[in-house]
Amino acid sequence: MAADAMKSGRSAQRLQWRALACAGLGLSFAVTPALAAPPRQSTDRRLPAPRTFALRGLAPSLRSGVGEARVAIALRGDPLTQAAMASALSFALQGRLTQAQVAALKSGDGALERRLAQRQETVRQAALDGLGTVARVAQRTQAPVIEAIRRLGGQIDSSTAIGDTITATVPRSALRQLAGRSDVASITPAPVRRPMGLDTETAAMGAPSFWSAGFTGGTGPNDLQDDSNGSGVDLSIEADKIQEDHPAFAGIQFERPSGVGTGTSCGSSTSGCEHGTAAASFAIARGASGCSQCVPSDANQKGIVPGLDHVLDNSTDSTAIAYDPAAWELGITEQVWNTTDSSWDTIQAPPTPPKLAATVTVPTRRQTTAWKVRIRTRWHRSTA
Fold it and tell me: Do both 207 and 338 map to the same domain?
């Protein structure tokens, strides 16, 4: 009996402890549900929409003052930007390839490569044509704002469909009225254009600091005097005829191929020598003075290295026979065939090749200028 009672007591005690354990476990789940069932991680990896920092309304600096202000007026629509950012047009304008096209290119099929290139160009041109239509729509929507600016006494400087912006000079008293229009997004100060000359451009590059320290490109007190070619040629300008007797180049020694003039009339060349003269002035102009058309401020119009004193005018003005500009500036005397009299002509090399050569190319279609400057490693004269 006693034994049965003891067993019964132990069983009851075990049941009591089990009950307490279950109660504690339930309490833990209730208080800290995260321990029982952690939330699922989100699988959405898309980035949030980008924030924009475009100014709205009238810029604070334009809210007071008198007189006129040159401002940039941004319209609310901006249809060109919206069209260009559309996924289809954006993909076409960037010239990107699809994964299938990339895989096809790995086959090494040259004909396939040409077809893909032609297709990409066709798609891109079609996208540009589509943007042209949108740009014309944007320009038409600018007309009411342009009319309002003129009515308020303003003057239109420019307008562009890119960014849907109008640049104008407007009385400050009229800016609030313009900013209150429903089709105007913002009005901000626009840069004021100022004329630039060689003096400001060389100053922007820090050249005067070198001049004041005695480094002018050849004749300065701290310039290297015993270089590889003594006081010989320092620069060659290729394929762009220079007017060597321009007043800004007074004191500079020029060398040119046989039969080429100094550039006063630039021979019979249809392109003239104006561009080559301007290109050379960026480097070697010394400031013009003492000429009939000179003004006092011309004396300050100097190139980057006004102390450079020896230049190869490495171009023909259509009066000289054909020659190899690269060989000539490297100091190589060459024999070239003269098709006029069916004989060989000797093109005598300059006695001292340059250290630096600049090639200036002006494409006729777009009239853009591409600069290519290359260092010549062969400085000493050689004869071939």
Answer: yes
Question: Which pLDDT score, from 0 to 100, does residue 43 have?
Answer: 55
Strand partners, 69: 170
Q: Helix H segments across the chain?
A: 2-31, 33-36, 79-85, 87-94, 99-105, 110-151, 175-179, 198-204, 207-212, 274-284, 325-329
Residue-level pLDDT at 148: 95
74 plus 135 within the same structural domain? yes
- Say how many residues make up the chain: 384
* pLDDT of 49 strictly over 70: no
Four-residue CA torsion sign, 210, 214, 220, 223? negative
Residue type for position 368 = T
Is residue 26 included in any domain, yes or no?
Answer: no
Rounded alpha-carbon distances, angstroms, from residue 194 to 16, 52, 69, 199? 94, 31, 15, 13
Same domain, 141 and 68: yes
Residue where one domain finishes, among candidates 167, 189, 211? 189
In terms of domains, do 206 and 319 share one? yes
Confidence of residue 383 (pLDDT cuts 50, 70, 90): very low
Neighbours of 377 (CB within 10 A): 7
Domain identity same for 233 and 311: yes
CA–CA distance, 168 with 191 (Å, rounded to integer): 11
Among 165, 189, 213, identify where a domain stops: 189
The total number of structural domains in the chain stands at: 2
> Mean pLDDT lowest for which of 66-70, 168-172, 368-372?
368-372
d(CA 25, CA 17): 12
pTM of the entire predicted model: 0.50
